[in-house]
User: Which sequence fits this backbone?
């Protein structure tokens, strides 16, 4: 084995303020980090590209060497004392995840440096849930999946992509919870700080929900959905997306292309199964549709097809059946979350789907 070893990447500190630099070196030492200090030239460009974390002093935000650097994740602006409005604006322009104000946020900064030096977090898994027709039970299943995944975890994001659907927060009983809804986040593009986003959303039983607004309904931009999902997954949180039948091919494609598991809910009727087949079957040119990788959950209907017959019509694997839960409708109407106890129909199915997701991860590894 070669005796040469690559040196561990070091945090980058860029500041010409000697007092601020002394404070940053002290805090980095407390976090067990030996930084690289640079304010210009090739050293700054290389360190900016390779460093696990970049700390920019507020004093260098307007400097020419810093302004020409490309945007990247893991940038924190550090200011000695409450910064002027221009500093906040420049930090946003740089794509900084936070402006850390010293000395008030010394503890946070030490923790952020330490986390940057640890092994990167695993990306959160993405589950997309859709239906072959309206009223299939997609939103209820998506909520049940999120609630089940949240048990014993550090949080889950449930994303509502139907801007005219009345708000998925109703299913969780979170309609009165404080937090942002889609109209306030529809302008998101590019990189977003996942932890800040999760903290800004309504939360119930470990599930943060990004829901449509009942007072200001409107289309949910696909770019905003992509930015939100990527930010939260990058932070290690799992994401469940409720993808309605009305979602256009661009929105469906953007979510389903990244999904670790795509679930298509199909009522056990011939027309619903035929509609599902249209969603998954490649067109004449042979290119796959966004829903081509989907697996099926069948909702039994009195006098309808069997689950196996639905799978035969659609031509996709069967994951399970969405059994009748007599509590689902009254709980939904009363603003109470779906019942996901292990013996409930929704809880049992949600656990089966999450087990399938784990199994798929193992096979991929």
Assistant:
């Amino acid at each position: 084995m070669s005796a040469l070893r690559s040196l561990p990447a070091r945090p980058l500190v860029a500041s010409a303020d000697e007092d601020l630099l002394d404070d940053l070196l002290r805090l980095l030492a407390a976090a067990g980090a030996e930084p690289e200090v640079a304010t210009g030239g090739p050293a700054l460009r290389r360190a900016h590209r390779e460093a696990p974390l970049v700390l920019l002093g507020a004093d260098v935000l307007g400097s020419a060497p810093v302004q020409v650097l490309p945007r990247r994740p893991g940038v924190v602006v550090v200011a000695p004392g409450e910064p002027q409005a221009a500093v906040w604006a420049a930090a946003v322009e740089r794509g900084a995840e936070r402006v850390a104000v010293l000395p008030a946020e010394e503890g946070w900064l030490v923790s952020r440096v330490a986390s940057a030096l640890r092994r990167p977090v695993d990306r959160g898994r993405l589950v997309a849930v859709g239906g072959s027709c309206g009223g299939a039970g997609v939103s209820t299943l998506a909520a049940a999946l999120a609630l089940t995944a949240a048990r014993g975890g550090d949080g889950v994001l449930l994303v509502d992509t139907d801007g005219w659907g009345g708000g998925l927060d109703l299913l969780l009983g979170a309609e009165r919870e404080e937090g942002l809804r889609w109209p306030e986040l529809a302008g998101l593009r590019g990189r977003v700080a996942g932890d800040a986003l999760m903290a800004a959303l309504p939360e119930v039983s470990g599930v943060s929900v990004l829901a449509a607004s009942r007072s200001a309904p409107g289309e949910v931009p696909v770019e905003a959905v992509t930015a939100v999902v990527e930010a939260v997954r990058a932070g290690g949180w799992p994401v469940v997306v409720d993808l309605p039948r009305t979602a256009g091919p661009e929105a469906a494609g953007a979510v389903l292309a990244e999904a670790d598991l795509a679930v298509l809910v199909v009522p056990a009727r011939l027309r619903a199964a035929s509609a599902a087949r249209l969603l998954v079957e490649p067109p004449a040119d042979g290119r796959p549709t966004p829903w081509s990788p989907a697996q099926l959950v069948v909702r039994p209907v009195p006098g309808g097809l069997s689950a196996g017959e639905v799978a035969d019509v659609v031509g996709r694997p069967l994951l399970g059946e969405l059994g009748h839960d007599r509590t689902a409708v009254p709980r939904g109407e009363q603003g109470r979350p779906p019942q996901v106890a292990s013996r409930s129909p929704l809880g049992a199915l949600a656990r089966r789907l999450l087990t399938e997701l784990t199994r798929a991860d193992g096979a991929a590894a």
About this structure: The longest strand covers residues 261-267. The chain is about 40% helix and 15% strand. Confidence is low (pLDDT under 50) at residues 1-7.
